[in-house]
Specification:
It contains 17 helices and 16 strands. The chain has about 425 residues and is α/β, with parallel strands linked by helices. The strands form four sheets. A seven-stranded parallel β-sheet has the order 3-4-2-1-5-6-7, with helices on both faces. A five-stranded mixed β-sheet has the order 9-10-8-11-12. A two-stranded antiparallel sheet has the order 13-14. The longest helix has 18 residues.
Amino acid sequence: MIILDTALEQREADGKPIRLGIVGSGYMARGIAGQVLAGMPGLRIGGFAARNLDAAAAILSECRVEATPVASEAEVGGALREGRPLLTPDPALLSTVVDVIIETTGDVEFGASVVLDSIRNRKHVVLVNAELDATVGPILKRYAEEAGVVLTNTDGDEPGVAMNLLRYVRSIGLRPVLAGNIKGFIDPYRTPETQAAFAESVGQRPKMITSFADGTKLAMETTIVANAAGFGVARRGMNGWQCSHVREVLDLVSPGTFVNGGLVDYVLGAEPGSGAFVVGLSDEPIRQQYLKYFKMGDGPLYLFYTPWHLPQAEAPLTAARAVLFNDPSVTPLSGPRCDVVTIAKRDLAAGEALDGIGGFTCFGTIENFAESREANLLPMGLSEGCTLVRDVGRGTAVTYDDVQLPTGRLADRLRREQDRHFASSVYAQ
């Protein structure tokens, strides 16, 4: 049920718009700012926090908005009176003057710090940062719950689209058993070199585009859905069914596929070419009769899909859901159900440093969390900067025993805390 539009119109009429703080200055930050500044009732950009202030200022300038630079708490009051968005290098400072933070950097270490600072300031957080969520989302969710705020991944990206469908399927009385992405292309051995020309043509960084092409981003997104839905994977890497249309999923599974619980997966090369899907199960005769009449098929499995994803448009609405209704679009149920593990893209030698998500050395793939922990596999979100202490062959999973971690990283501490805190629930799966 759509209720955000009327609630936001009321906030606009009352002169109490929701103030959004954007952290980051890249592709998604630009899209979100452009969406809101072009006009969305009940929403305003309260400011930007960015490591690259020139890039953030350029986004606002492109949107014909002048910002007020702020470097300290003492400068905030005057800036707010001017009524313009703030521009600051300090995300913690930004979180003191907005209602909700939208974290867009895609950086695990930096993003973890932003989220914790925002939670300490009792601010809701929207993650447009699948890399962070898939790595330490469950423990960050616990911190958010203790502070009484919402931590959510964004609607509009595939995890949010899938969870909207899943909640709808559940609300009409079906049991969701499968959720996944509609993916056009995957080659795990793509690199920033192979993707450079395409990245330039769409105005994105080669490493980001590589993470889409090599399947790492898919693994991150399906892990987020698995952790939110309590689902697993049928095997490491998922099935990845080649289809001409997503509707063919119903020919590839049966009720018996889900005897051990719900699953996440994806279809490859299938129309409509974008979006997400959910399969629901019902063996109730009257419900089946009506679903058949309304062209949903014979059952007992039924397919629901959304043929688009628009994260730049939906992220502001995700923020509004958090502020107005304390409703996360997609957030971990509890402990992790799946993990994104590190796989060598080529033969790697002892002494080499891993270059992380979207790089030349490794890609990420999804695994059930219990199996990942049993094998002591290195999370892809922690791989950047790790130094190999032994050779690792192409296509081989990298373990913690294979690497030396960088020292002093917040993300490593959070991951250790997450593993300890949810250990009993993992082994009970």
